[in-house]
Amino acid sequence: MKLPFFRSCSLLHRLRRGFAGLGLSACAALAWGQGGADCPAVPAAPTQAETDAGMKTARDRGFLWRIYKDGRTSFLYGTIHVGQADWAYPGPRLQDALRASSIVALEMDMLDPATLQGLQASVSKAPQRPLPQALTKRLKAQLQAACLPEQMLSAMSPELLATTLVVMSTRRDGLDAAWGIDNAYARLARGLQRPVVSLESPAQQIGLLQGSTQAETIARVEEALADLESPQLRTTIRRLATDWAEGRLDDLQRYESWCDCVKTPAQRTLLKRMLDGRNPAMADKIHALHESGERVFAAVGSLHMIGPAGLPALMARRGYRVERVALTPP
């Protein structure tokens, strides 16, 4: 995400232990199967040498805002949920923001065992609505293309499986959910001995991805498969990742004009539900933490930061003075 990475050797060792404790390689192998000659490599936890190199070359990426109220400063940080290994290391301005904060707030803390248990419970409760045979056949083809076992058809609901396939499609462009920035900051917070809180629950996030009827389930799976079968999906995700890595907020703010994801009223409704509809509750929780005396570092997906319904705008309406922090360009 620059030299220096941490100013303390003890913190460096904690970071290394955090990566090792995550068991990144083992988790990836379980999730993605054994793979094959044409499959993207399974990401492995960084070695000590790789961590040292990451520290030396780390630079600030993403989008950062300071928010002031009641004599305290908190931060809003726009993340991306897939990434590259070297993006996991924050540059100097992000280090300073983390150190100046007393608590880290994420959409969900994926290193919290309670979160993982909640996700497992929510996934197991999601209804397994049957799909037309043609859709099932297309899902199987995408599972094979993603190097995933066919047994996953019965492991989760069709909508969740389709969403998983969309996320995993980025691996062929060098972007991987294993290097998602939110998870990196969950590890960094623990290295800095900062408490981590979740702004949303597993049930909330899984519920967003589920259709409420069989017709809605079929429509969502059809849409995801159409995206997977088109080159536009990978083009859009690459552009989104580049905007994040290079701090191109102006382009990100025009997301709806180039994402090819709001072609129908149903798509627009779903996009608003997935983004703007979640922001007020997250803003309320960030505000409550700040009012309780905490200095919050709130890291959520960058698309929650844009427009009049984005978190910076919502916090300004709650009486905060909001200013964007310029991060060093590449």
Description:
This protein has 330 residues and is α/β, with parallel strands linked by helices. It has one domain. The chain is built from 16 helices and 6 strands. It has a 6-stranded mixed beta sheet with strand order 4-3-5-2-1-6, with helices on both faces. A hairpin with a 2-residue loop joins strand 1 and strand 2. Helix 1 packs across helix 8. The relative contact order is 0.18.
Summarize the structure.
The chain has 330 residues and is α/β, with parallel strands linked by helices.
- Write down the secondary-structure element order: HHHEEHEHHHHEHHHHHHHEHE
Gross morphology is globular
Rg result: 20 Å
- Largest sheet descriptor: 6 strands, mixed
Number of helices: 16
Number of domains: 1
Helix content: 40-55%
Strand order of the largest sheet: 4-3-5-2-1-6
| Structure summary, number of beta strands | 6
Uncertain runs are 1-34
CA distance, first residue to last residue: 10 Å
Average pLDDT for all residues: 85
Find the structural class using helix and strand composition. Answer: alpha/beta
Strand fraction: 5-15%
Assembly annotation: single chain
Features:
330 residues; alpha/beta; six-stranded mixed β-sheet; 16 helices; 10% strand; globular; disordered N terminus
Helix-strand layout with pairing:
Layout: H1 9-22, H2 24-32, H3 48-57, E1 63-69, E2 72-79, H4 92-100, E3 103-106, H5 113-125, H6 133-145, H7 158-168, H8 181-191, E4 196-198, H9 202-209, H10 214-228, H11 232-246, H12 249-253, H13 255-258, H14 265-274, H15 279-291, E5 296-301, H16 311-317, E6 321-325
Parallel strand pairs: 2-5, 3-4, 3-5
Antiparallel strand pairs: 1-2, 1-6
